[in-house]
# Entry
Amino acid sequence: MTLLETDLDDVPAPKGQLTLKLVASRQDANLYGDIPGGWLVNHMDQAAELSAGREAGGRTATVAIEAMDFLSPVRVGSMISVYTQVQKIGHSSIKIDVEVWVRPPHGQQIAEHQKVTEARFVMVALDDNGRIRAVHSD
# Structure
């Protein structure tokens, strides 16, 4: 293996499927032009729900979000990409890893595409009355 091949293998890349893609706008920003963490969590939750809903064939709800760290600020104008990957399916629950990657606005001297946060979302399948149900009915 050459040095170049090793370097290419070390380039971080998103894991999972692109589930949501959006631009952080001025109306989403705080006073300093940064996007609040809660805004990102909201979109991560939407992506987890989309992914879980496909797997469960219907309605789902978030019951837990495991540890989350924010690695860098997100600026207005950044392209936000949210990736999801189903990790485990239980009787009524689905664990989904969610990653947020950004491309900063043009003109900023930051890595082209970087991960800003990740978390594992635990979702449960719900019936029409909002009660927990099996993910896959037999």
The chain has one domain: 14-125. DSSP finds two helices and six strands in the chain.
